[in-house]
């Protein structure tokens, strides 16, 4: 769960992994804790007041924090990208920040690679 005073942390890019018991049991979302909670907690109703939205998002993040598939969910939302709702403990705005950081890091790595190849 992210508190207002905590900086966003980027989700690690998943590496290819060997098939696990989870993979054989079904898709990652079948184990998501949010499947047992009200969907309204994760998606904003229209014209939701700011205070209500912040409270709802924090409650959704608390659910995500105890989820065994939070990383898979977050990565799904970042790769799709999901434009709405709380996914993997991040709001849509927080996911946009993470994606911007990833793009910036990828551009820096590409630039460094070009410089190294030229030099």
Comma- or semicolon-separated keywords:
4 helices; 119 residues; mainly alpha; disordered N terminus
Walk me through what this model shows.
It is a single chain. This protein is an all-alpha fold. The chain has one domain (23-118). It has helices at residues 21-25, 50-65, 70-79, 92-118. The chain starts with 20 loop residues before the first helix and ends with a helix. Residues 1-25 have low confidence and may be disordered.
> How many structural domains in the coordinates?
1
Provide a count of the helices: 4
Shape: elongated
Secondary structure category: mainly alpha
Rg value: 17 Å
Q: In percent, how helical is the residue content?
A: 40-55%
Cofactor: [4Fe-4S] cluster
Subcellular location: Cytoplasm
Function: Acts as a transcriptional regulator. Probably redox-responsive. The apo- but not holo-form probably binds DNA.
Binding site for [4Fe-4S] cluster: 34, 64, 67, 73
Explain the layout of strands and helices.
Elements (H helix, E strand, L loop, with lengths): L20 H5 L24 H16 L4 H10 L12 H27 L1
Short description:
49% of the residues lie in helices and 0% in strands. The protein has 119 residues and is mostly helical.
């Amino acid at each position: 769960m992210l508190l207002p005073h905590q900086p966003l942390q980027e989700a690690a890019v998943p590496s290819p992994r060997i098939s696990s018991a989870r993979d054989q049991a079904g898709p990652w979302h079948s184990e998501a804790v949010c499947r047992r909670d009200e969907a309204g907690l994760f998606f904003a109703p229209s014209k939701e007041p700011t205070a209500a939205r912040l409270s709802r998002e924090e409650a959704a993040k608390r659910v995500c924090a105890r989820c065994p598939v939070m990383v898979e969910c977050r990565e799904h939302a970042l790769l799709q990208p999901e434009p709405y709702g709380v996914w993997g403990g991040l709001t849509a705005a927080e996911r946009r920040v993470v994606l911007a950081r990833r793009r910036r890091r990828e551009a820096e790595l590409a630039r460094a690679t070009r410089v190294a190849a030229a030099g």
